[in-house]
Amino acid sequence: MMSLPKLASYKSRGTLPGNPACPACPHNIGLKIVGKVLGDRAVVVVPAGCTSIISGVWPKAGIDLPILHVPFASAGAVASGLKAAYEMKGEDAVVVVWSGDGGAADIGFATLSGAAIRNEDIIVIVSDNEAYMNTGIQASGTTPWKALTTTSPIHGKTEEKKDLAMIMLLHKIPYVATASIAYPLDFAEKIRRASEIRGFKFIHLHSPCPPGWRFEGGKTIEIGKLAVETGAWILWEYREGRLEISRASKKFLDKGVRKPLKEYLMLQGRFKHLTENDIKYIEEKIEENWRYLKLISDIINR
Amino acid sequence: MMKKVLIGNVAIAEAIRLARVDVISAYPITPQTIIVEKLAEMVDSGELDAKYIRVDSEHSALAAVYGASAAGSRVFTATSSHGLLYMYEMLWWVANSRLPVVMAVVTRSLGPPWNIHTDHQDALTIRDAGWIIGFAENVQEVFDMTLQSYKISEDKRVLLPSIIALDGFILSHTAEPLELPSHEDIDGWLPPREPLPFVMKPGEGFAVGNLGPDEVTMELRWYIWRAMERAKKVIIDIDKEYEEIAGRSYGGLTEKYRVEDADYIVVGMGSWSGDMKEAIDILRDEGYKVGLLRIRYIRPLPDFDIIKYCVPAKAVLVYDRAVSMGYGGILAGEISSILRGKTPVKSVVAGLGGVDMRSEEFVDSIKRFIEEYEMDKDVEWLNTYWLLKGGDEG
């Protein structure tokens, strides 16, 4: 298992100080962990998104990793081509797609699904900040119901959040996990495990975005933790044919120990307009997600 | 050298095998599909040692070979019509990254209405994207142009992607005898790709395609411009080199057919150039001083040849299988932009959606063009004429 001393002992690769990310940006946190765990083995494919900016303006660099910037809807296919080339040459490289939610759940979904169903030997990490943040907070397929964005500015989004990890699970790929930037050891261990499996690996990373969700920058980790502690974001992992709820989330199977959902929602400007009824409805939806995950894991692990 | 009877699509697959391509991506579209089917057979049977990626769309087809090319592999994909347009974004990404990707475009009309037959609208839609674009006349040239494309694109002076355009069905599905070189003939001339212009590797803090100052974007475009200029010479050189291996050359960027003393120059490209040559022969027999300048490469545009052969002529007639609505024939526009009024140019739009043009129809329309010009030299020459056929046109 991953431990802090172990993670700290890895050579630092990934984000560099002073890069153009917003203060308290979750991508910076996530990329730092990716760089630490995969370091010298990774080649990273980045479709259009916040990381296109975080990577820095030439001749400076914001991220100390080999990065191939690619168009929005192309990452899964580009990564497949890279891996095919390395296999032809007999070269060892961990090809990683580092995508936002739009690039994976919406515009890039067909190419993601195509790469998954071919079981390409790549890792896809979707750093999900729940909207098109780089273009200035427009609703995406993974924006939660009712969240305010600039394309759902008054009443909030009218559709539910797309459950990308569950969709990827049904592609019958060898590894699927959810993670959170607030649980770095859990995320690091999941990347490590993924890198040791041959075939398509998918990690859905929850990434609270200060300007996008409208909360104070210092609270990125606090909000990420609250998402898990209120049960709104569930950490789970599918590998070796078993689906397990991860340690940090396990106890929240019991509704009674979850923190009140309001604590998570009311810290975020995007949910400030919610009524009591709205919150109740979201609570029911969260409960449904847990029930659904439990049922699926029971079937898979039977 | 071996002689075989092959359709254009299979000839391309044979050229890909000889070029020892490493990574192929495949997405079907009529009339291209046979190319990727034939390549699948070659890879499955072990005849060709390559990775074959069955992608989810044409956009992904070009994205996949983009990735493989960025890691240093020699790559290939093929498409047609709507597939090419679905790739449009990736076309620019590939060219602006300077990767020597090679792609076959089996030309086909764009819908609606649905139509699987040839015109040049698809391939000409992408002429600004930074790709070298060649149009073949027959199956032998399809094969030769495909092999030469790797040599041209991977040349240090060029480093730009290439398209081989071949007319749907007329070339893609028509069997013709052709000569095929062997691996022994080709391997020395076309060695494995050098790691240029860059290769993505683990362990390096190296970004490709990241943000830069605006001046850098413009400077990079200027480099592409210069590479295109250099490509003109490279295409001519490689055409000559190839003659030593295969015993054939085509005249570089253009083929000149009976142009030497011609008063009237006909300009065209693609498979119907063969019918134009037949028409030229008939007209020559009747005493008309007319020749054909066949455009082999529309990018880079053979400006020197156009000036050399069209300026001394009395007038130029350009046949187009593609049109820019509200403007005129696309090839005619290209030719007149180079001639800048020095020689009158008449634009004829014909053969859209696969409408057939026979040699006698070229004879008739060339005669009419010459007669009209001789009767009234002040005629409005830049007008575009449409040769419509059938239906209610009567």
Describe this structure in words.
The complex is a heterodimer of chains A (302) and B (394). Chain A is an alpha/beta fold and 302 residues long. Chain A is built from 13 helices and eight strands. Chain A has one domain: Thiamin diphosphate (ThDP)-binding fold, Pyr/PP domains (Rossmann fold, 3-Layer(aba) Sandwich). In chain A, helix 2 (26-38) packs across helix 8 (184-195) and helix 4 (75-89) packs parallel to helix 6 (109-117). The mean pLDDT of chain A is 96. Chain B is of the alpha/beta class and 394 residues long. In chain B, the strands form four sheets. A seven-stranded mixed β-sheet of chain B has the order 3-2-4-5-7-6-13, with helices on both faces. In chain B, strands 10-12-11-14-17-18 form a six-stranded mixed β-sheet, sandwiched between helices. In chain B, strands 1-8 form a two-stranded antiparallel sheet. In chain B, strand 2, helix 2 and strand 3 form a beta-alpha-beta unit. The chains are: A alpha/beta (302), B alpha/beta (394).
